[in-house]
Amino acid sequence: MAFRVPRALPRCHPLKKYPHRAARLSPPRFDILRGAVSAPLAIAHPAMHSPGNLYVVSAPSGTGKSSLVQALLELDSHLSVSVSHTTRAPRGQEQSGREYHFTDEPTFRAMVERGEFVEWAQVHGRLYGTSRRAIEQGLAGGLDIVLEIDWQGALQIRRLFPDAVLVFVLPPSWDELRQRLLRRGEDGEAMIEQRLANARLEVAQARHFDFVIINALFEAALFDLKTIVHSQRLKYAAQARNRSTVFAALGIG
Q1: Is 60 contained in some domain?
Q2: How confident is the model over 148-177, as pLDDT tens digits?
């Protein structure tokens, strides 16, 4: 099973960099960084209605999405995060099977042809994908799974997994987003401008999501994310699936 076990987080600034996956997608899409249309993955997957819950968190780069998800994992032992596949090289202390499953491009392309990804895409010249088997087996086994993917991938996941909960994280302002990208210290000015331009296209898609969180104050945004996860577990359909013996004893269903 390809899931990452939550690790202890140091107490730190909410914008501290954490390993996270890039945007990915399965159907045809326009890659705003490369100006090219990715190849479609013409594979039909059945809709899933499973004991586990699937949460998909999307946001523009620099919004704090990965820090929020990592903090949530530390607070909620019932959540797992899917470990994605990528063709990029490991960075720093990253380990294969923990942050990503690192692989070469021929192997990745072969996995695409075999239909092993529920969604995949090329980003910044590298390939990223989400394992179909890991997601389906995890949900069937009652796991609650979190995915960090771009908005297009999120909508593709919704088509394949109708019960998925989609969450979009917004920055409080464009100025603040720029400052966060600058403080992160990973990109030059040209790349920061490109990320900001992409962000304007991305935030326009928030209307397609179930929930929207504005990450102005990290602690408040984390509380909102925890509330979304908990409220999903209390929905009638989720309770009927997961507490079926109680429902049966009470004569409801």
Answers
A1: yes
A2: 888 888 888 888 888 899 999 999 999 999
**Which CA distances in Å does 67 have to 39, 62, 206?**
31, 10, 19
CATH number at residue 205: 3.40.50.300
Q: State pLDDT tens for residues 131-151.
A: 888 898 888 888 899 998 888
* pLDDT value, residue 3: 53
CA atoms within 13 A on the CB side of 157: 34
Q: Which of 47, 53, 49 is nearest to 231 (CA)?
A: 53
Is residue 253 assigned to a domain?
Answer: no
Residue 2 included in any domain:
no
Residues in the chain: 253
- Which range has the worst mean pLDDT, 12-16, 52-56, 59-63, 99-103? 12-16
Q: Is residue 212 part of a domain?
A: yes
